[in-house]
Amino acid sequence: MRPFISFENKNFLFKLTILIILFIFGLFFFSTLSVFTAELIWGDIPIFESAAKVRYIQFFSTIGGFLFPGFFYLYFDRQLSILSISQYRKQWFPTLRRLMLLIVIMLSIVLIPFVVGLGELNEMIKLPESWKSISQWMSQSEAENEKILKLLTQPATWKTLLINTLLICLLPAFSEEIFFRGVIQRLTQQLVKNQHVAIILTGAIFSLIHFQFNGFIPRMVLGIYLGYLAAWSGSLILPITAHFLHNFNSLLIDFVAQKRDIDLEKVEPFQAGQTYIFLILLAIPLFIGLRTLYLNRKKENPTTPG
Question: Which residues contact 114 (CB under 8 A, 6 or more apart)?
Fold first, then answer.
């Protein structure tokens, strides 16, 4: 069945307008619906006092803001379509792509100190005094995000870890990769005609849309990394896996810290200096291996972009 809106021969502005409309409608409709129904279910309990209420609203907001517009846009724009299950089944039988997946899983552990270091660097950046009002708003937003995250991750039980793995790790990884790498990155590449520029721009948008200044740099670098995974592998399986593991590692570290009564805020990020240096150096051959596998894939299929 053909979609009722055809993107054939439509320009970038038309496609971008449709995407923005889908994003705004999805986010507004699903968020409003979730808040309204949450009030019916939990009453007027303040959102910072009910983890269940926060999870409920977060679930629908993620679907409305990313999964809904992503899937609908791909339905309209068949040039970007990634919805074919048979396509993925054919893609991931080859050993080459399974090796790429294995390297990504290893990198998810090796890159932890690198991400921590970028976070520390980000926190050192101070905005100009003329931006005081913006700085105050960002600080307030960060404090609220921290409060919500603390609410969601306590108490540190296996049940809480399982629920958060699905809500904080799996759902955002799948939904956001469909939206950012599946739609925005490929749409941007159609405009700028340069894969690297498209990946960097999408990484910046990916970070900006989270509205967390203290995590802007590591999240942008993560977005760029996910963008290259999507470009090199030719599908969203690698970026979804890497995104999930990045979120899960953070969740698991917090879980273990609570179980062992460790205050992560008092832990110096580079106190295990030699171990961190070893892990960062180990990332270099892993990236080289990933790039080599991509080049081999490109030889097998000369039409592969990049």
Answer: 279, 280, 283
The type of residue at 290 is L
Domain C-terminal end among 81, 99, 122: 81
- For residue 155, what is the DSSP state? S
Tell the residue number behind the tokens 């270091």, with chain if given. Answer: 117
Is 305 inside any structural domain?
no
The tokens describing 48, both together, are 């910072």
Instruction: Please write the tens of the pLDDT for every residue from 14-40.
Output: 888 989 999 999 999 999 999 999 988
Cα separation of the two ends of the chain: 32
Judge whether 78 and 10 are in contact, CB under 8 Å: no
Residue keyed to tokens 């409003």: 32
User: Rounded CA gap, 62 and 200, in Å?
Assistant: 23
Question: 251-304: per-residue pLDDT in tens?
Answer: 998 898 888 877 666 665 555 556 667 777 778 888 888 888 777 766 666 555
**DSSP 8-class letter at 93:** S
Percent of the chain with pLDDT over 90: 33
Residue 50: domain span: 1-81
Could you tell me the two tokens for 58? 């977060």
Alpha carbons 50 and 66: distance in angstroms, whole number? 24
Distance in angstroms (rounded) separating the CA atoms of residues 176 and 240: 8
Sign of the CA dihedral 116, 121, 124, 130?
negative
What pLDDT is recorded for position 168?
A: 92
Residue 34 DSSP SS3: helix
In a domain? residue 234: yes
Whether 26 contacts 65, CB under 8 Å: yes
Structural domain contains residue 306 = no
A 10 A CB-CB count for 284 gives 10
Pick the closest to residue 210 from 176, 240, 161 (CA basis).
Answer: 176
